[in-house]
Amino acid sequence: MTHTPLRVAFREDLEAAHSHDPAARSRLEVALGYPGVHAVWGYRVTHRMWQEPSLRLPARLLSQLVRGITGIEIHPGARIGRRLFIDHGMGVVIGETAEVGDDVVMFHGATLGGTSMRHGKRHPTIGDRVMIGTGAKVLGPIYVGDDARIGANAVVVHDVPPGASAVGVPAKVRFHTRPAADDYADDPAIYI
Fold it and tell me: Which residues of 42-77 are buried (b: 16+ CB within 10 A; e: fewer)?
């Protein structure tokens, strides 16, 4: 992933939140009152710091300050693409070796976590345009393909193919006869 200038990334994150949330009345409201946006902005700063080994401790401390303010924990070592939107946000956790593609939407209580305490890749890789529902747990070094949807409270420990949905505990993969669109409400198991 190449580094987008911070001002461009911040503007894209703001626009993503404004366009995805039907309750958002203005960009000013989003900029001032959306903890998901604040957490992503904090991550973008700490991730840049994380690239310099001498700044890793300050990056980690700043990320914990952002966590305390927003209730959202994003490790500065994670790799997050453009226009991530975290709606509501409280309780979201994104681990150190997680990779998140572009235009991903996550809801509160979602976790991109590990299944081991070993060094190396231990968190999921999420493709582009993925929606991760409320309380979903996506665990381990698995891959979730582009345009996939993870249902609310699902526990996902195996790969999810592009365009599929994963719902339940443990999650079962379901395939759709039509492509996923911005309107996720066609399947209540997906939503909040």
Answer: bbbbbbebbeeeeeeeebbebbeebbeebbbbbbbb
| In the predicted structure, residue 184 carries a pLDDT above the cut 80 | no
- What is d(CA 38, CA 41) in angstroms, rounded to the nearest whole number? 5
- Confidence class for position 113, pLDDT limits 50, 70, 90: very high
- Domain count of the fold of the chain: 1
Statement: the pTM of the whole predicted model exceeds 0.85:
yes
Q: Which tokens in the block code for residue 55?
A: 């700044």
Structural domain range at position 53: 6-186
Residue 1 lies in a domain: no
Mean pLDDT of all residues belonging to the chain: 91
